[in-house]
Design goal:
Elements: H1 3-9, H2 14-17, H3 20-23, H4 38-41, E1 52-53, E2 77-84, E3 88-89, E4 93-96, H5 107-111, E5 114-116, E6 119-123, E7 129-132, H6 134-147, H7 155-168, E8 180-189, E9 201-211, E10 222-227, H8 251-259, E11 264-269, E12 274-278, E13 282-288, E14 294-298, H9 309-322, E15 334-338, H10 343-351, E16 355-362, E17 366-375, E18 378-381, H11 393-405, E19 413-417
Parallel strand pairs: 1-4, 10-11, 10-17, 14-15
Antiparallel strand pairs: 2-3, 2-4, 2-9, 5-8, 6-7, 6-8, 7-19, 8-9, 11-12, 13-14, 13-16, 16-17, 17-18
Helix pairs in contact: 6-7
Catalytic activity: L-leucine + 2-oxoglutarate = 4-methyl-2-oxopentanoate + L-glutamate; L-isoleucine + 2-oxoglutarate = (S)-3-methyl-2-oxopentanoate + L-glutamate; L-valine + 2-oxoglutarate = 3-methyl-2-oxobutanoate + L-glutamate
Enzyme class: transferase
Modified residues (N6-(pyridoxal phosphate)lysine): 242
């Protein structure tokens, strides 16, 4: 990266950060070069042909789908792939789900060298199993790995192994509406020594989790608290990458807003209180313009914002709508904008009845509507429809779910198993 680019990332104003070069920061593989020097280029990459499968003999009882709690139940098998600086990626193994063995000195335990992804598999009533846009998760995981000096890998090879794992445990995929199999690829540094630096050993593993709706209330609106005492990310930091280190600092602020009666933080940045993200989700706001049209706004990928797969999907659907490929149920003309938004703009729009809706997006929750924001001692109220969804988020959600589950044909849906 050039010196001018690094200076740009360190700017204190999100509006300054937005440019095509900054947007490419998390979308290109350029940062991957940090981890792919000449010595690494000779190491073995992930080899699907070497996969070993150890079947679980005592299969676990599967709980009723309706009683699933998000992130608490795991399938029979897991995928593991070791890596070393001497030989590269080792033998992939699908084996019974169970504990990992780590040395107390493992780097991940001391310096938080860990990354992860969140994906979903779906099974329809006929038994067809699909993944939703998994190629984007593989690219983002490589970018995250490079950011903290973990080894990168062949994303297509890892995806093929994930497909085999999901195929093996496909009976764990719930078929109730709103249910799916959550897939968690993870990589950790396992070097057996204390010291800050690129690790000489790592482990990539994948676990599967049958899940229902992320929030117990389904797609009902949630409340936010505009957090000004804490920050999720800063320019030049790691906010644009899916690292474990990004999440632990948000636990205390989340606990505190829960005690105030709100569901999630709305992360505000800088003295101007720029909107960045909602809890662990990307953020969208819909404003009514002076001519009566609507503007769908999301903060730009400025180095602080995570480039979410669902975020990209929402933007793509909205742009297609504005270009004539109408979303079912959305008759209004909309303009799609990636720009900085201050909390003062949201509050003013609400006071003038120009705020149409506000919602979060992410793999776990898909779309999460918002009905109020606690800000500077008062609540900013946000309109929602009779079903809790807004006039833009509702049609977007229906289209997304249709593409995810296969009821709407789309190349975003990658088939693993045909019935």
């Amino acid at each position: 990266m050039s010196l001018s680019f690094l200076r740009l990332l360190r700017s204190s104003r999100p509006s300054v950060l937005y440019s095509p070069r900054v947007r490419d920061y998390t979308r290109t593989s350029g940062i991957r070069l940090l981890n792919n020097d000449a010595s690494q280029a000779q190491l073995a990459d992930i080899d699907v042909s070497k996969l070993e499968v150890i079947h679980r003999k005592d299969k676990k009882p599967q709980p009723a789908s309706a009683g699933l709690k998000f992130g608490h139940t795991f399938s029979d098998h897991m995928l593991t792939i070791p890596w070393s600086v001497e030989s590269g990626w080792g033998t992939p193994q699908i084996r019974p789900y169970g504990p990992l063995e780590l040395e107390p000195s493992a780097t991940v335990l001391h310096y938080a060298q860990t990354i992860f992804e969140g994906m979903k598999a779906y099974k329809d009533e006929q038994g067809r199993v699909t993944l939703f846009r998994p190629d984007m998760n593989m690219r983002r995981m490589n970018t995250s790995a490079a950011r903290i000096a973990l080894p990168t890998f062949d994303g297509n090879a890892l995806l093929e192994l994930i497909k085999k794992l999901v195929h093996l445990d496909k009976e764990w995929i719930p078929t109730l509406p709103g249910y799916s199999m959550y897939i968690r690829p993870t990589m950790i540094a396992t070097q057996k020594a204390i010291g800050v630096g690129p690790p000489n050993e790592a482990l990539l593993f994948v676990i599967l989790c049958p899940v229902g709706p992320y929030y117990a209330g389904g797609f009902k609106p949630v409340s936010l608290y505009g957090t000004t005492d804490y920050v999720r990310a800063a320019p030049g930091g790691t906010g644009a990458f899916k690292l474990g280190v990004n999440y632990a600092p948000g636990i205390l602020p989340q606990k505190l807003v829960g005690e105030k009666g709100y569901a999630q933080n709305l992360w505000l940045h800088g003295p101007e209180h720029y909107l960045t993200e909602v809890g662990t989700m990307n953020l969208f706001v819909v404003f009514e313009q002076d001519n009566g049209d609507w503007e769908l706004v999301t903060p730009p990928l400025d180095g602080m914002i995570l480039p979410g797969v669902t975020r990209d999907s929402v933007l793509t659907l909205a742009r297609e709508h504005s270009q004539g490929k109408k979303l079912d149920g959305l008759d209004r003309k909309i303009t799609v904008t990636e720009r900085s938004v201050k909390m003062s703009e949201v509050k003013e729009a609400a006071e003038k009845n120009k705020l149409i809706e506000l919602f979060g997006s992410g793999t776990a929750a898909i779309i999460s509507p918002v009905d109020r924001i606690g800000y500077m001692g008062e609540d900013v109220h946000i309109p929602t429809g009779p079903d809790g969804m807004g006039p833009v988020s509702g049609p977007v959600l229906r289209e997304l779910v249709g593409r995810q589950t296969g009821t709407i044909p789309s190349d975003w849906s990658v088939v693993i198993d045909e019935p």
